[in-house]
Amino acid sequence: MSAAFASSRTNGSEVVKELAFFAVIALLMSVMLLGVETVDRPTGLELAVRWDLVLIAIGATVIGRLGLIFRRENISRLGQAVLITLSAVAVFEMFVRFRELDDRWVSPVFLDMVFSSVVSTIVGIAFVAIIFATAYFTMKDKTSADVEESAKLSSKIQLAYRSNTKKIGLIGIIFFIIFPFIFGEDRSAIDLATLVMIYIMLGWGLNIVVGLAGLLDLGYVAFYAVGAYSYALLSQNFDLSFWLCLPLAGIFAASFGIILGFPVLRLRGDYLAIVTLGFGEIIRVVLINWYDLTGGPDGISSIERPSFFGLADFSRRVPEGTIGFNELFGMEYSSMHRLIFLYYLILVLALVTNFVTLRLRKLPIGRAWEALREDEIACRSLGINPTNTKLSAFAIGAMFGGFAGAFFATRQGFISPESFTFLESAVILAIVVLGGMGSQIGVVLAAIVMIGFPEMFRELAEYRMLIFGAGIVAIMLWRPRGLLSFRDPTILLNMSQKEKVAGEIK
Amino acid sequence: MDWAYFLQQLINGLTLGAIYGLIAIGYTMVYGIIGMINFAHGEIYMIGAFHSLITFLICQAAGISGILPLTLLLMLFVSMVLTSVYGWGVERVAYRPLRGSFRLAALISAIGMSIFLQNFVQISQGARVKPMQPLVEGGITLMESANFDVQLSYMQIVIIVLTFVLMVVFSLLIAKTSLGRAQRACEQDRTMAGLLGVNVDRTISTTFVMGAALASVAGMMVTLYYGVIDFYIGFLAGVKAFTAAVLGGIGSLPGAMLGGLLIGLIEAFWSGYLTIEYKDVATFGILVLVLIFRPWGLLGKPEVEKV
After folding, report:
1. How many whole angstroms separate alpha carbon A152 and alpha carbon A158?
2. Which residues lie below 8 Å from residue B100, measured CB to CB, with a gap of 6+?
3. CB contact burial A214-242 (16+ within 10 A = b; e otherwise)
4. What stretch(es) of chain A map to CATH 1.10.3470?
């Protein structure tokens, strides 16, 4: 078995053996979970058989493996690309076929789907072309000159990216500022942009903890929840306005961070991860069960919407004694005003997060975070108190999570423990890690990829999380250090910009 | 104090603990050998539960479900084999390429794998709760008191005995066979073991396969014991089993079992005497306390910090 993997020469019988091995693996993996479906009937569970899925799974595995062998053994650039594309199409076909089919032996659904309309033809061809091109152009020829060439190229790109971070950031900010002017009347576009912006803010907040201080936090959503619930409860029970509650929510979340962090921050990396996960779950369980305060699983509804800095209101019929936003500025009433205002609000909040992070990185505390991330023992021997330093990162990260939570509550008008599951934490963490830990622009990029794209493909709702999970694995395998790998400290001794890049590529 | 009630909670706790212990072994073995938290292990357990349920339904359709021992053995065997393949596949796809990379990469990849497997089962088998009729019914009444009878069901006996047998078998496997020796060698120093002729890749794969096989047994027992499963059971069970592994001392096999039993007992007594809603909080609370005061667990060895 292992001999087949280690073969560096192509040998017919070994290839056949390897393919047969993977065919058996595919058969064993798919025979029950894919081949048999449990169907709920009034009389109990019954079985429905779907052997077509098993066949496709085996076919996709064998073809894909053959493609990888072609790739590994440098046989044919074109051949491997064709095989890998075929395999991807087969996987796609397999997932479409999960949907109920009357006749399981009909012709490929993929073709029907592709030729059903012009748009889907274009999408289908693009899908195939992208996979083909990726497979074709990423195959490395094994000559060392080529490898060096590509290393040089990627170092050039990195250098260009790094020396222009400020410009890229500025262009990004301008784009986000004028975004509502471009899509002003499109409600769904503004909604989506607001959602992406929330995740960008959460990502930036978590980036302080994970990217700068190197503490893996799997329970970040707990602070988000604390922020959301503190705003909702304060506004409902004490009738406080959003603008007063926003800082309070941040303070509450930060105190939770300190309470939580104090006992656990002595722990090593992955232990810390699990403990934070545990805290996230504890908060959720408490929210569900403390019915008197939090409303339990029903959540809290009709949370007050924010006003225009306490000056004007956004609703159509304004309460006595206040004026409407449209009256204040002498405009026609439009329900879009509130949405656009919310968008700018979260944009400002996110930018504040970013600005604070960038400034903190240049302060002694930020330097201490980065140093602690790189080498804790060295830090301790140099007199940095690791617990306090970590605690400050935890608290500041939590505070921004709390701000985002308060914003979330006021935007949705309804919150329930449902919104604060572990999955949310995983999504936020994935954004930070995929972006390349410590990279601020990477977080933006990753948030757009992870939140924006799946939201656009709402029709594929049932497959969204499946693709999401597979995407995390794929990006990790492809670029383990994130899309924009960018993790070295802000300052280094005796290292010019060029050497820094070269050092990282090694 | 009502002793009958106490005894009943003890029995329930031990049963639950045996299940947690079996899952915890998978975490502890993988952590011991490659030093990563196999976050997808809970999903492997869930897949094991689904495999056993489907095997049972096939047996039922084939008309052999009347012969109970045969059905149970088939369920055990099929689910162990098929789930092991998933354990192998997960390691091969998501962890092996990242082995030399930095620590968090493998953990993130594991989280991605966990989300993927969960949704894969949700889509392929449906999101609804899957009920199953009880196969092993009846039990022994151990003690009769005025208002409460202590029941030890046959199912609980099966679970505890099976767990015990598997524990003995696997301990022998690790202690006596060359495979176990290779595993222990890899645990101490992977490079050195490789230089001395141990096939490191294969040893790590086997570790994953063994962990998955044990988790699938746990999955099958849960299916039989509770009679309902869904695609989401893996997450919580996984976290609790990990807690058990940490509690017992991660990397230690008897520790995992002991930790599992303790977690099961704590959960049973907490729901028996205090509030059932907050039993998960109790588990996580224990985890936090252990990590603060004894991070190396009950049976583990303190880790020496190296520069």
Report:
1. 10
2. none
3. bbbbbbbbbbbbbbbbbbbbbbeeeeeeb
4. 183-478
CB of A290 closer than 8 Å to CB of A296? yes
Whether CATH 1.10.3470 fits A183-478: yes
Amino acid identity of residue B40, one-letter, is: A
CB contact under 8 A, B124 and A34: yes
**What is the pTM assigned to this prediction?**
0.85
C-alpha distances out from residue A454 to A202, A467, A473, Å: 18, 9, 16
**Using CB atoms, which residue from B47, B53, B116 is nearest to A470?**
B116
**B186, B193 contact by CB (below 8 A):** yes
Amino acid at B235: F
- Give the C-alpha separation, B17 to B163, whole Å: 10
Determine phi and psi for A44, rounding to 5 degrees.
130, -165
Report the chain B residue with the minimal C-alpha distance to residue A94. B124
Complex ipTM value: 0.86
Q: Which residues have a Cβ under 8 Å from the Cβ of A101 and sit 6 or more positions away? A: A109
Q: Which of residues 135-154 of A touch B (CB under 8 A)?
A: none
Instruction: Supply the CATH number for residue B208's domain.
Output: 1.10.3470
Residue B87 has pLDDT above 90, yes or no: yes
Q: What is the dihedral of CA A374, A378, A383, A388, to 10 degrees?
A: 40
In a domain, B264, yes or no: yes
- Which of B44, B54, B65, B135 is the best mutation test for A, with the most CBs of A within 10 A? B54
Residue from B58, B116, B287 to probe the interface with A (highest A Cβ count within 10 Å): B116
**Average confidence score pLDDT of chain A:** 79
Length of chain A: 506
B94 lies in some domain: yes
- Nearest-angstrom CA–CA distance, A312 and A326: 9
Q: Which residue has the tokens 């921004």?
A: A400
Q: Which two tokens stand for residue B181?
A: 């020796």
- Return the DSSP state at A419: G
C-beta of residue B220 within 8 angstroms of C-beta of residue B81: no
Query: Tens digit of pLDDT for each residue in B255-306?
Result: 889 999 999 998 888 888 887 777 788 888 887 788 778 877 788 777 665 5
Query: Where in the sequence is the domain holding B61, given as residue range(s)?
Result: 2-139+152-293
Bridge partner residues of B229 (DSSP): B130
Q: How many domains does chain B have?
A: 1
Does the residue B33 lie in any domain? yes
Q: Which whole-number Å values give the CA distances from B306 to A294, A376, A421, B75, in the listed order? A: 47, 11, 37, 47
SS3 content of chain A, % helix, strand, coil (to 5): 75, 5, 25
HSE at residue A416, side-chain half, CA atoms within 13 A, is 8
Contacts of residue B10, defined as CB under 8 A and 6 or more positions apart, other chains included, come to: B265, B268
Closest CA to A400 of A159, A206, A148: A206
Q: Does A499 touch chain B (CB under 8 A)?
A: no
Q: pLDDT at residue A484 above 80?
A: no
Q: What is the 3-state secondary structure (H, E, C) of A109-127?
A: HHHHHHCCCHHHHHHHHHH
Pairing of strands B139-144, B149-153: antiparallel
**Is residue B40 assigned to a domain?**
yes
Token pair of B163, please?
């767990």
